[in-house]
């Protein structure tokens, strides 16, 4: 399965790529077919087996191949630039960052079921997605309200990734594991969780969007400020 519209474009490009082959320009045709295969690899969108257990939180992004991995897990507060949009009343949160390589699936999925209560897109630069990206790079925030508290997903563009796409709007209800957007050609996705969560993965773990259980809620919402 591929991102919507990619299969149709690929079919057209394959038809075009056969023309130089028929005219004897085999090298040109091979190059075109290679580029088409490269594009289809980037824009694949496989179905996922979404776990159904209660109170769990799944990975919003793939980090399964090459350098793609969960590369940071830590507690954050006012030092995280978008924290006030996710938790207007303040407090600490848990940050799980996933670095997506150009060869990972680029579609992002909802980590929890709930109502999208806030989205914010910020234009910016396209630096390598590891340094000062939250203040300089293009980024997109999606806040999902659940019975346990708010959960934030931050899509961050990088040096190669030049476009962030959001599939959902404020007011939409999303199911855990459903598609909420994509970052073309990889980059980084931050998952911001309330304090009432137990993290179930470690730094360096591989993740599969919509399938890997990264955390679970352990306390009722009333136990924390939100």
The gyration radius over C-alpha positions equals: 19 Å
- Domains counted in the coordinates: how many? 2
Mean pLDDT reading: 81
How much of the sequence lies in strands comes to 25-35%
CATH architecture of the largest domain: Distorted Sandwich
Distance between the termini: 38 Å
What low-confidence regions span 5 or more consecutive residues with pLDDT below 50? none
How many individual β-strands? 13
For the sheet with most strands, the description reads: 7 strands, antiparallel
Arrangement of strands in the largest sheet: 2-3-11-7-6-5-9
What is the overall silhouette? Answer: elongated
Structural class: alpha+beta
Residue share in helix:
10-25%
The SSE string, one letter per element, is HHEEHEEEHEEEEEEEE
State the CATH class of the largest domain. Mainly Beta
Counted by DSSP, the helix tally is 4
CATH domain fold name of the largest domain: Glucose Permease (Domain IIA)
Membrane topology: Peripheral membrane protein
InterPro entries: PS_Dcarbxylase (IPR003817), PSD-A (IPR033175)
Cofactor: pyruvate
Catalytic activity: archaetidylserine + H(+) = archaetidylethanolamine + CO2
Notes on the protein architecture:
The protein is an alpha+beta fold and 226 residues long. The chain has two domains: 37 residues, no CATH class; 168 residues, Glucose Permease (Domain IIA) (Distorted Sandwich). 19% of the residues lie in helices and 32% in strands. The chain is built from four helices and 13 strands. The protein has a seven-stranded antiparallel β-sheet with strand order 2-3-11-7-6-5-9. Strands 1-13-12 form a three-stranded antiparallel β-sheet, with no helix packed on it. A hairpin with a 2-residue loop joins strand 6 and strand 7. The protein starts with 5 loop residues before the first helix and ends in a 9-residue tail after the last strand. The model has no long low-confidence stretch (mean pLDDT 81). It comes from Methanothermobacter marburgensis (strain ATCC BAA-927 / DSM 2133 / JCM 14651 / NBRC 100331 / OCM 82 / Marburg) (Methanobacterium thermoautotrophicum). It is a peripheral membrane protein. It is an enzyme of class 4 (lyase). Keywords: Cell membrane, Decarboxylase, Lipid biosynthesis, Lipid metabolism, Lyase, Membrane, Phospholipid biosynthesis, Phospholipid metabolism, Pyruvate, Transmembrane, Transmembrane helix, Zymogen. Heterodimer of a large membrane-associated beta subunit and a small pyruvoyl-containing alpha subunit.
């Amino acid at each position: 399965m591929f991102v919507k519209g990619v299969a149709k474009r690929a079919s057209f490009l394959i038809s075009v790529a056969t023309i130089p082959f028929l005219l004897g320009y085999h090298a040109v045709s091979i190059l075109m077919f290679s580029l088409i295969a490269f594009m289809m690899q980037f824009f694949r969108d496989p179905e996922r087996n979404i776990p159904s257990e209660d109170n769990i939180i799944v990975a919003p992004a793939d980090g399964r191949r090459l350098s793609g991995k969960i590369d940071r897990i830590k507690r954050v507060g006012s030092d995280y630039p978008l924290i006030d949009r996710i938790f207007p009343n303040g407090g600490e949160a848990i940050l799980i960052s996933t670095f997506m390589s150009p060869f990972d699936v680029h579609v992002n999925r909802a980590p929890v079921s709930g109502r999208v209560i806030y989205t914010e897109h910020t234009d910016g630069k396209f630096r390598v997605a590891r340094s000062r990206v939250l203040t300089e790079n293009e980024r997109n925030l999606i806040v999902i309200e659940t019975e346990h508290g708010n959960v934030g997903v931050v899509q961050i563009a990088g040096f190669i990734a030049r476009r962030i796409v959001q599939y959902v709007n404020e007011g939409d209800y999303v199911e855990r594991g459903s598609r909420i957007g994509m970052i073309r050609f990889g980059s980084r996705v931050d998952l911001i969780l309330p304090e009432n969560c137990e993290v179930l993965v470690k730094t360096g773990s591989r993740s599969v969007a919509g399938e890997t259980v990264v955390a679970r809620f352990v306390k009722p919402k009333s136990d924390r400020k939100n």
